[in-house]
Amino acid sequence: MDIKDLIVDDRDRGVFRVHRSCMTSAGLFEQERERILDRCWIYLGHESEVEAPGDYRRRTVAGRPLFFIRGKDGQVRVFLNSCPHRGAMICRRDAGNAGVLQCFYHAWSFSTDGDLIGVPGEDAYGPHFDRTEFCLKAPPRVDSYRGFHFVSFNPHVEDLVTYLAGARDYLDLVVDQAEEGMRVVPGSNRYTIKANWKLLAENSLDGYHLLPTHRTYVDYIAGFGTDDSGDTVSARPPGAAKALGGGHCVSENISRNGRPIARWHPIFGEEARERISLVRRRLVEKYGEERTYRMADTSRNLLIYPNLLIMDFVAISIRYIEPVAPDRMEVTAWHLVPREESGPALATRLDSYLTFLGPGGFATPDDVEVLESCQAGFRATEAEWSDISRGMLNPSPGTSDELQMRGFWRQWHAHMQGRNTTNVQDR
Ligand code: FES
Ligand SMILES: [Fe+2]
After folding, report:
1. Ligand 1 atom closest to Cα of residue 90
2. What Cα–Cα distance (Å) separates residue 341 from each residue in 52, 66, 190, 373?
């Protein structure tokens, strides 16, 4: 099938369909690597993960082994995790601190800024041996926005801020919630899903599945009752789904479930009420009612195209999807918290996060099961198309419509055909 026919996008009839070979074909998976993962900005990690000089983190990003490390000068550098000598992975642990990086194969050693500083028996190489030819290599492009570090393997990629397009404002909404900046809580949850990576990009933005798939959670929260005193949301318009340009998309909800940042809910306990209202007052003083409303009373699932999600709802999580095979992805999730939070406030937030998104939470196991079920269902190859048409004729699409997923797919389809699109007039 020709790539241009993989998606049916009929705006007059309100029909949007994706051919299921997009989730199963090994050939398309290879093309995605070249045309998407090797061309876009891809998330690497957060600055707070490497606070002290010598702190490092190891990652696999778009198939490449990488690590990032804070140098003695305070700067964060990213290196390909492959020894310039003969290829061994220099960084052999996921996290740690090092003053010098020594390769375990022939013991060449490198400084934290990547210079080759030690070669056992160096004289055997003769007079033309040049250490500077063997520095650790960085990916072609490295950049960060408000603490979020990205890499690109495309030397000609646009600058990161341009690339982020309308998603930038949503990252600001996350970072501005904190008084002293955000930090990632040490540790992560990592899991493999036997399904195509795009299914999780879709699912993370899919409001339509919330009630049927996560009924247990919805009932559990409802059991705590609601807090309507000082109601700040009832007169507001309902949530919205938006394409933000460049394939980035968001689904934004009014939060009736409470947010550890400045919206109390009975589930947090009576003792948290005063503390949360103080945070809210601080936000209003600093940003005004309207922006505080957006931070505290709405919640959002943000997709930064192609494979990063910022889930800014019950708490804030960063979810990175690494495509591994047409029918396999590896997911890593971190929890992002305001630096100033500790004690009971932090405990409330961690609990909210784990209850819904943790490995044994109400949502994650459901979603893993449902995506693996879709992937297994694709073996019935006679059923060729998946439908993502919901709300296509709705002039102001809501969060259980599917505009946000179409925005992702339209960018994917354009990239796969060698085009770019920043069309924000999607529907
Ligand atoms: S491969 Fe690293 S020192 Fe030889
Ligand atoms: Fe879900």
Report:
1. 2
2. 20, 31, 24, 39
